[in-house]
Amino acid sequence: xxxxxxxxxxxxxxxxxxxxxxxxxxxxxxxxxxxxxxxxxxxxxxxxxxxxxxxxxxxxxxxxxxxxxxxxxxxxxxxxxxxxxxxxxxxxxxxxxxxxxxxxxxxxxxxxxxxxxxxxxxxxxxxxxxxxxxxxxxxxxxxxxxxxxxxxxxxxxxxxxxxxxxxxxxxxxxxxxxxxxxxxxxxxxxxxxxxxxxxxxxxxxxxxxxxxxxxxxxxxxxxxxxxxxxxxxxxxxxxxxxxxxxxxxxxxxxxxxxxxxxxxxxxxxxxxxxxxxxxxxxxxxxxxxxxxxxxxxxxxxxxxxxxxxxxxxxxxxxxxxxxxxxxxxxxxxxxxxxxxxxxxxxxxxxxxxxxxxxxxx
Length: 361
Fold this sequence. Notes:
This protein has 10 helices and 23 strands. By secondary structure, the protein is α+β, with helices and mostly antiparallel strands. The strands form 6 sheets. The chain has a 5-stranded antiparallel beta sheet with strand order 1-11-12-13-14. A 5-stranded mixed beta sheet has the order 2-6-7-8-15, with no helix packed on it. Strands 3-17-5-4-16 form a 5-stranded mixed beta sheet. The protein is globular and about 50 Å long. It has helices spanning 2-10, 12-28, 85-94, 120-123, 200-203, 218-224, 238-241, 247-250, 288-295, 341-347; strands at 64-66, 77-78, 82-83, 105-111, 114-119, 128-133, 136-143, 148-153, 155-156, 159-160, 163-170, 173-178, 188-190, 195-198, 209-211, 214-217, 229-231, 273-279, 282-287, 299-306, 309-316, 321-326, 335-340. The N and C termini lie far apart (66 Å).
């Protein structure tokens, strides 16, 4: 006790605590919220310093901005290790903190009976997973800035691509880049749209096939897919996984980076979550808030039709989760995505508002 008292009087703990706070602030300041329309506060980097050819850019170049990190500033994963449900439960019981709880959000994908769950607590530190699921080479991506979950077949133009985090954003949405051995030959791709927006691939009009992607709670996904496998954490990143630099961002309408256009004032906030259901070449946008209003409850099940497909949607407004189940063969081209309302509108300003009628039972 005398030793402890001496250390306390010496003030060492003040310096240690101050150092820890500074380190945490530097980490969490990777992307600092600011009102929409204000330019990002960067670290002096310019878009040209990232080494991408923008001469073939198919979007307004001035809206491509540095995201406060360098190329590959986040570790993209390539065919990462997976855990069984039993191994997840073992980790939940053995670890000091629970690895995956029932209300935790996961990005779920299922191909040919092969179901995978990617916890968002892990994905926010990677954003990109180049994986192989059900015999198909997939890009599994999650962007916390737009809360956007997108899964694509990463075969384009007759070749299988591998993607990384470019360090750039467009309308506050992650821009991916395809890895190339030759310097300067990589292209930039929109995460939300699954298409190239700059570089050789953009010049060729390259797109990827969108597939069903779900943001679900762990309880929802495990209930639907009891044999699912789960993304395993990278051991050296366990400390980072415990941090949530987006907690305050999710709780406000502040945006990190410029977005144009923004949706007009209406019954949806900028960060209301919307479900995008694509089939037959058209997109139907359903707001989770409208599903909850139609059901008269914050969570539940809705059955109806979207994009001409009969569907059952298990939703949870507070969790920001929506699990879609087609009630008939949706045919080729069926896909689902989820994102913030502002992110979808910026790409599709013709979407005046997700119609409340869509969410009526």
